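re: that complex we talked abt at group meeting.

here r the seqs, copy pasted straight from the sheet so there may be weird spacing, ignore it
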Amino acid sequence: MYFKILSIWFFSLCSIAMAQHAPENIKGVVLNAKTLQPIEGATIMGKGLFAISSKTGTFVLTNPNKDNCVFTVSHMSYAPETIHVTDNLEDNNIKILLNEKINTLAEINLYGKTEQRKAMEHPMVATLVSKTFLENNRENSLMQTLEKIPGVSTINIGSGQSKPVIRGLGFNRVVVIQNGVKHEAQQWGNDHGLEIDQYGVEEVSIIKGPASLMYGSDAIAGVVDIKQAKTPAKHSFGGEVNLLGESNNDLLGISAGVKSRKEHWFYTGRLTYRDYGDYKVPTDKINYENYIFELHDNNLRNTAGKEADASISLGYIKNNISTETTFSNVNAKNGFFANAHGLEVRNSSIDYDSDNRDVDLPYHKVNHFKITNNTKIKLNKHTLLMDVGFQNNAREEHSEPVPHGYMPTPEDSQERTFLKNTYSLNIKDDFDINPQNHFVTGINLEHQQNNIGGWGFLIPEYQRTTVGAFAYHQLEINHNLHLMSGLRYDFGLMKTKAYYDWFQSSVTNNDGSTSQVYLQRSLDKTLDFSNFSGAIGLSYIHGKTSYKINFGKSFRMPLANELASDGVNYHMYRYERGNLNLQPESSYQVDVEFNHTNQWFQLNISPFVNYFDNYIYLNPTPYYEGVLQIYEYTQAKVFRFGGEVKAETTLFKKLNLQASAEYVYSRQTSGDKKGFTLPFSPPLSGLFTASYQFKDLSVITQPQLSVDYKITATQKEIVPPEEETEGYQVMNLSWFANLHLVKGNQPVKLKAKINNVFDTKYFNHTSFYRLIDVPEAGRNFSISLTIPI
Amino acid sequence: MSYLKKTLIILANIFMFGACTGDNDLEKDLEKPTISVNYTDGFPQGCSELQRGNTYTFRAQVTDNVALAAYSLNLHHNFDHHTHDDQGAVCDLEQIKTAVNPLVYLENFQINEEDVKVYEIQIEVTIPDDIDTGDYHCAYSVTDQTGWQSRTSIDIKIVE
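got the structure back, here u go
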């Protein structure tokens, strides 16, 4: 480790206004010499004297030594001042002006590297998303907010739920990490959201590519890593209240968060509540398979919902140890579009149009409870990280009890329940052998138990245990050239439980007679899987340009429904058959990233080529079981390539222009659907953003107007049962400003936004409702306030 | 800047490589089959009444651009008015009632000849004497070799 002398000079100009005689008490005010704004938190210290300046910069020193009063005024960001108070002070009000600290650094060598530099050196292609980005682009769900990032899209259902898709792959192929622990909801399904309160999220890192090496099974297409909130500063208290109102679905939302720290102990807390009505689409009727649904007031009936979230964390930090325990609970209830739920056209006697805020059948309720503990211990050259997690995921799906096939009318509306408990343990050792060699080893353990209930069967009960161990090495070949290589081994055990229908079906025997039987839908089976995965990557920094290349093999264990389902998916109106012979999916990918940043512009290009030798695919067959089409899980070879391009420039220091484009090409190169793409393939799209920074106007500072223009090409790449989706262009407008309503306080942040300015009727190819020809939401006005406390 | 240029050329090549290895000019079937009872012999027509004890031949015309594969017929009660058909005409539905012994007919059939592009579904069904009368629903579906499916449904009544 090289260490050189660090020298710092403080320049300060003194301008002290003070006068003649010392009174009983000394009152004063501390101001910024340049702006004359009050300085809060300046320390005033003298012999037997102590005060801290208030929000308005004022302080009081009691019982000063009248003859010779000397004190020092200091603040982290300002040059300290020493004040002599003589006995001829005219009035007892002292004005102290502090100058901002100007540090001149002769030569400096830092031990640490900035996060930005570290990200540049790390060969893995990742995008860091800041809190500012999240605040400025906040939409109805976390994933809709992140959708602006090239390469990221979503599969949506309704207005508040969406799941991540990275470069065209989603569901269980993208891992969501929160506080170091893999977030477990019901990732496999079409109509389950993420179950995360987006207001608590401060920073997200998105890996667009296979990342099994560090994140295990399922991280085959990418990772959305929600970072732990930053530890608050010592002796601090802060918080904010966010208010949100939206016109399209009459949404009202409130979220309040606090964070505070003493010396070693710290805590954070947040409460969020959102309540919304049916969302509006720019059409008065929907046509699905020749059925026509008239919409009342453009409301997509029964898509209202509400959400209540709470989280609290408690942490301790001292010397080389830090630990934080977080409890969180997300609770939501959402309705589903009533007329074509499960792709079957339905009439109902429920009067959906009487109220646009009520939630009738069909709907679902979810509750996600989570405890995580993150502990970090620094021991010499080792950093030990431990993440422990428990998650309880309870979901109920309710729909009108109707007879179907041989199934008589069920007694209640409880169509399905899922109760999933997940226990996770990750241990990682970060070993800095020397500045050039960095060695990381770790293990991941996860145990999961899924219980089911209700009258509709979709996936069996199962238990899944996975163990993974990995090691990777980061080598600094020279200051600008870094090599990373790693290996991982995983072992998984899956136990599925048998399931029989609760009603009898008529079955034709071999001799032509018929008998009534309780059909078996899943088998009692224990299956095991193992897999090697790995990655090797190189990063090279050449002045303002950086290059990355990364080659990785990732994998995914088959899921219970892929292995063992055998029954009617009433949700999708089809018969789904699992396959016990499925092998773990494996994927090989080459990622390249090129980034150039100079004072005029930034350019980022990130192409990839990807090959799956056994992609698990739910294949629509030409055959029937009863009267429903059979969809069968099969494995096919898949070839994909694509990438993202992003360019950015700022003109006249005021106008920021951004343009980005994303494209994915997928082909199944074997199997029944050879030549076809994969389901839910995102079309070629481009996003243009222009933001203009206006001049401050009295109490309004940093006013900014921003226009987004999204252009999406027609998606002709489809696979049964999809339909081609026409291209579209949508414009959004936003206005941001800081309002200094109370002098000396932090400003209130205001955001006003119009989504879909022209109320364009368009279809999103990756929306669940696309399958029933429901257009995307119409024009929406929203206003949000972030008030500091 | 020469570095920048070189890199751009390399990246462009990667894109090109991908683009060229792409489509192997496979003729993809992107068309759904069609299904209809809207012709003289099509049966049942919207709102028709079927008598218990009688035998009927259910007929529908199906077509596909490549090859038809299989079809199904589904007869189930609509006593709770849960579904409506897509034939355009609105039938007068009876009172909502509880099923006691409703007719359930769920059968599928394969078209075994190869490359059939036009086909007439003909299924003989005898309506049993002891089933509940009232509003029923008749749903046809058809698949092609590729796995595309089309459906149509007709509101009918079963009478004494």
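couple things i noticed - Chain A touches chain B through 54 residues (CB under 8 Å). Residues 34 and 99 of chain A are 7 Å apart (CA to CA).
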